[in-house]
Model the fold of this input.
Amino acid sequence: MRLWPFGKRDPVPERKFSAVGPNIARIFVGQAVWTPRDYASLAKEGYQQNAIAFRAVKMVASCAAGVPLLLFDQAGKEIESHPLLELLNKPSGAYSGAAFFEAVYAYFLLAGNSYIEAVGPDLGMPKELWPLRPDRMQVIAGRFGFPEGYRYTVNGIPKDWRADPLTGAGPILHMKDFHPLDDWYGMSRIEAAAYGIDRHNAASAHNKALLDNGARPSGALVFKPIKLNDGTYSAAPQGMIDAARDKLHDTHVGPQQAGKPFVFSGDVAWEEMGTSPKDMDFQEGKNDSARDVLAAIGVPAMLLIPGESTYSNRAEANLELYERTVLPLVEQMVDNLNAWLCPRFGEGLRLGIDEDGISALEPRREIRRKSALDLFNAGVIDAVEARAMLQFGERDKAFVEKVDSAVLSALRDEEMIDAAGLEPLYRYMRKVGLIGAKMTLDQFIRSGGYALVEDEIDAGQPVPPKEDVGDAADADQE
Done:
């Protein structure tokens, strides 16, 4: 019985995006011609020849590659030194960690697919990691929904890797984006932005052509008919018109010839064909197509389109870039590495994102700190819960908070003790760690733990904790 309805086990060639535009043989004048949807065309038109798409892909890939990663053991404790971290920091002799991940992310954005080769034992710790070009890789389709292998072809020479047909495990990691019409390959974000890229490139080419012609149409040479003796009119000979056209092109067209006068003999008039400023304003059209490109890739328009960003909203745009584009991309990579790479280095290891190391997320952290402090000051949560909310660990048992000598002296004043008793002093000393947290008020009074001399307290300095009188009192009672 056939369990999976997708394809055969033969090698599946790299998908060539079907052209949305018309076939070349059926193109009519004035009909739009779009870039063919294959990887080479998309990479050339959308990355090499379009400034907006290039900068957007470069920005996302560079930001994602710069996100710091953390390694945790099975108990959730961070590991600061490990062979896996060394491998990710230096994947191979040709790539540093940042360059390696930037290439992986850039391939993913351009092709919708990214491939990583693990060089080393099949099931052991790999020695090197290499990014592979997606246009050279072919998936060997399996019958159960996972590839049975991969084929990488360079200069006509193929190299094959096997993969587990039931789990997909193997020396190749295939990271792909969702594609609604393909089971084996992901969808490129540049493909979704292709129409905007074509519009942007066409506008740039139009502006370049206008600059080559003095930023205006060249005008029209009008040869006026000559009136003959018999009262009839005779048009200029075709040879004269052709000669005038050639001479005009050679001496009047182009940026170096712009503005130079041109004189013809005879009954010839020069009719200026000027354009309005609105007709010449292609910048808004370029910006509109640029917004479509940036929306497909996931970059806020105000970061790349001139004139749309200010100092105040740039930080918000950077935060949006990380929260909506960069971090989801890195999380997808981390999930793939946790399933494919981490088990090779030991059981229970997992990678995570160090969000505290990303400066662009500081506004988010500031909001979290303010919320925790507001809840703590309102008495909704205690200090332990506030520290947990801010992702801080537990304090050391010997920790002593900063002691305010003026407050302590006031609480120890005889008149204050006569009026309010020893409870305010007891609560303050327990809070700052001068007495044990387990000590009760009765134990505090009986132990004489409050009888500290003022000379032991330096103004504004923490006081080292003394013996936990509470624990000692409990021991005496036992």
